[in-house]
Amino acid sequence: MARPTSAADAAGLGRGRAVAFVLPALVLIAVFLVFPALWTIYLGLTDYRLTGLAAANPQVVGLDNYTGALEDPRFLTSLWLTILYVGGSAIIGQAGLGFALAWILRSRTGPLRRVVEGVVLLSWILPSTVVGFLWFALLDRDDGTLNALLHTPGFAWLLDYPLLSIIIFNVWRGTAFSMMLYSAALENVPPSHLETARLAGAGVPQQLRDVVFPHLRRHILTNLLLISLWTFNDFTPFVLTGGGPEGRSEILPVYVYRVALRDGQLGVGAAISFLILLINLVFALAYLRLLRGRRRQQEVAAAGGPPA
Question: How far, in Å, CA of 49 to CA of 39, rounded?
Answer without folding.
Answer: 14
